[in-house]
Amino acid sequence: MKRSLIAKICTVVVILGIAACMFVIGRGHTVYFDAKEIEYNGETLEPGYRTAIFVNGERVARLSAGDRGMATWIGQNFKMTVEVTPEKGAEAVSHEVSLKLPYNMDGIVLNVPALLAGAPEEVYLSEFVSLATEVSSGDEEIVTDDFGIGGDI
Question: Does domain 28-129 have CATH number 2.60.40?
């Protein structure tokens, strides 16, 4: 009886340990990359002419100024390579970036110019929030019956 209870408790502890590890290791994130200018400390940080984002050796985004790209990532330790071409015809400059993704965010937006400029996390990292648009009653299309269907014949 006592042996059975100890075995059950050990089983529950092992399962909870595996669940905690999977939560940390297997957490999936959608990471969005913004190539938009941003104000920081009175300075305007502008994106380069072209920005290429590589994750796991694969190009996941090629951004011009104002564009947004995305990638999915499993885990908390995010690594990417950012190649920035400052102006048309110039040589691309490569940057290796590693950062910890927050546990509590599903959609994470990284502002690439702020990230590369060394701005603090609260400047370059934000949560993606989808803007739902409401249709007002004035915008609804009214369909009239031109074929006499449903009316008196």
Answer: yes
